[in-house]
């Protein structure tokens, strides 16, 4: 028995990426014994060893503490309250999604400030915005819906980078963000709107899942 994301969704028993694996099962001694035997068979067949020091078990919040101790002794793994992040993307999304992006914004701001100090030409800035700054968001956008407030913050940072030559000084923005983000047939810059880019990335991911 795996994990269901909704009542009528098919159960998910495992997820694999590269050399990492995420296994779902019922929190019962029988399930954990099966997993232990499965690990032994894998090691025997492949000749590889599972690093249990880098592996962990995450229980549901309703699991009793003494029950957790008994189950962890079967697999001899440590427990964790969170899956953490994978390639910079949080595996578990909190109710307030904006909290996920605060560390990213904190890292992005000084990075843009350092670029502004280079006194780049406008074509160079346009290349950095399109090929580096927005491209660095792709792996997040295909997995997590960006909150509108976060999108506006990123668009504001991009606009400041476009107009400023000194991050410590304020420059007048001669055009609105809507003009900078005009579609291909309406404007020469074609700086992408972060919110629309996020929605398009999610729709593209959904389409890929539907056409597998």
Tell me the major beta sheet: 2 strands, antiparallel
Fraction in beta strands: 5-15%
Helices and strands, in order, run as EEHEHEEEHHHHHH
Instruction: Please count the helical segments.
Output: 8
Helix content: 40-55%
> How many separate structural domains?
2
Shape: elongated
Over the alpha carbons, how many angstroms does the gyration radius reach? 23 Å
Distance between the termini: 23 Å
Kindly report the average pLDDT value. Answer: 82
| DSSP, total strands | 6
The largest sheet has its strands arranged as 1-2
| Backbone structural class | mainly alpha
Which residues form runs of ≥5 with pLDDT under 50? none
Detailed description of the structure:
This protein is mainly α and 212 residues long. It folds into 2 domains: 14-81, no CATH class; 93-210. It is built from 8 helices and 6 strands; from the N terminus they run ββαβαβββαααααα. Strands 1-2 form a two-stranded antiparallel sheet. Strands 3-4 form a two-stranded parallel sheet. The longest helix is centred in the middle third of the chain and has 19 residues, at 98-116. 10% of the residues are buried.
């Amino acid at each position: 028995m795996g994990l269901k994301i909704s009542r009528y969704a098919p159960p998910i028993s495992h997820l694999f990426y590269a050399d990492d694996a995420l296994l779902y099962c019922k929190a019962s001694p029988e399930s954990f014994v099966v997993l232990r035997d499965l690990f032994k068979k894998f090691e025997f067949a492949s000749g590889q060893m599972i690093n249990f020091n880098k592996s962990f078990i995450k229980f549901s919040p309703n699991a009793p503490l003494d029950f957790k101790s008994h189950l962890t002794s079967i697999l001899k793994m440590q427990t964790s309250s969170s899956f953490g992040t994978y390639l910079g993307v949080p595996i578990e999304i909190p109710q307030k999604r904006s909290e996920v992006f605060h560390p990213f914004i904190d890292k992005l701001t000084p990075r843009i400030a350092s670029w502004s100090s280079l006194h780049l030409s406008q074509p160079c800035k346009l290349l950095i915005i399109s090929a580096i700054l927005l491209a660095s968001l792709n792996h997040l956008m295909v997995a997590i819906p960006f909150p509108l407030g976060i999108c506006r913050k990123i668009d504001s940072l991009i606009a400041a980078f476009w107009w400023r030559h000194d991050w410590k000084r304020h420059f007048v923005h001669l055009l609105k963000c809507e003009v900078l983000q005009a579609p291909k047939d309406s404007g020469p810059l074609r700086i992408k709107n972060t919110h629309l880019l996020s929605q398009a990335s999610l729709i593209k991911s959904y389409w890929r899942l539907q056409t597998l």
